[in-house]
Amino acid sequence: MPPRTVEPGPIAILPTSHDGFAEAVERAGGTVQPLGSDTRGIIWLSAARSDELAAALDAHPQIAWVQLPWAGVDGFAELLPRYADGSGPVFTSAKGAYSEPVAEHAVALAHALLREFAPKARAARWADARTGRSLYGLRVTIVGAGGIAREILRLLAPWRTETTVVRRTAHPLEGADRTVTVDELDGVLPDTDVLILAAASTTSTRHLIDARRLALLPDEAVLVNIARGALVDTDALVDALASGSLLGAGLDVTDPEPLPGGHPLFAEHRCLITSHSADTAEMTAPLLAGRITENVRGFLGGTGFVGIVDPAEGY
Fold first, then answer.
1. Which UniProt keywords apply (predicted)?
2. Active site residue 276
3. Beta strand residue intervals within 74-226, DSSP E
4. Same fold yes or no, 11-97+281-301 and 99-273
5. Pick the catalytic residue: 104, 154, 257, 263?
6. Catalytic residue among 228, 268, 270, 294
7. Does 228 participate in catalysis according to the annotation?
């Protein structure tokens, strides 16, 4: 349930307007107007600039709903705790909306790592031996149980993988062979061939995969991170790859991000870095527009929202 009663009304698109998203609001019967005293909803189209959003909310306490642009809301980590007590607007994100392209990217990285595309491409010569692993029948562990994890499970089905989902609760996730809690992660890692990170970035998940947990993975395992860079201890990952204790790592996200030029990971021949391109603007714009239309309908009709953010939990 929303933290408070939501009174519908005109919606402002900020920090700058966008015709495609204005059309998404109007398709649902909403009205787009400049921010003012009668504004009741905000579509916030910047992944950052949280200070500007905070200022807008301070100046307009009548705002009842804010739609944020991405699945992850760590860019608003300083703003959201102000409303952890349930006061203020309902915040919604795009979580779940971008599942298909991001899950597709995760599986593509897993294939590329197992088949050792990165070292083979960088070698620039005919290899002395044929190497690589097939995904068929491997043990895949997915950390996270949101829309991306669900879509990854669906995509993995043809490869008959043995799948384990790691989440906050042990409530079984449909499509997974096994669901365990984060407390059980250490026991799962030694039997993991492909580790895919698809969890939110919070204080509790920072460096979830550190040197100790990387050491628990088999030497032939691969790591895929399409969530947030902070889930992995970057220095520990550099050491693990350099020592050969991992077959490879596929990183769409890094910590820091962007990764500075000359960073050791760029030179690591078994690391694939895709510069946060799992969901490009071209891919996400129609998906975000669909989420906006859906939530405007809920906003106006009182039927509820999709992708509600818990300001206390940070996702």
1. NAD, Oxidoreductase
2. yes
3. 90-92, 139-143, 162-167, 178-181, 194-197, 222-225
4. yes
5. 257
6. 228
7. yes
Active site residue 268: no
Domain assignments of the chain as residue spans, ordered by start: 11-97+281-301, 99-273
CATH no., domain 99-273: 3.40.50.720
Q: Give alpha helix (H) positions in 16-49.
A: 19-27
Strands (E), 115-239: 139-143, 162-167, 178-181, 194-197, 222-225
**How open is the CA angle 79-58-292, to the nearest 5 degrees?**
65
Per-residue pLDDT of the chain (315 residues; tens, 9 = 90+): 444 568 899 999 999 988 999 999 999 999 999 999 999 999 999 988 999 999 999 999 999 999 999 988 989 999 999 999 988 999 999 999 999 999 999 999 999 999 999 999 999 899 999 999 999 999 999 999 999 999 999 999 999 999 999 999 999 999 999 999 999 999 999 999 999 999 999 999 999 999 999 999 999 999 999 999 999 999 999 999 999 999 999 999 999 999 999 999 999 999 999 999 999 989 999 999 999 999 999 999 988 899 999 999 888
CATH code given to domain 11-97+281-301? 3.40.50.720
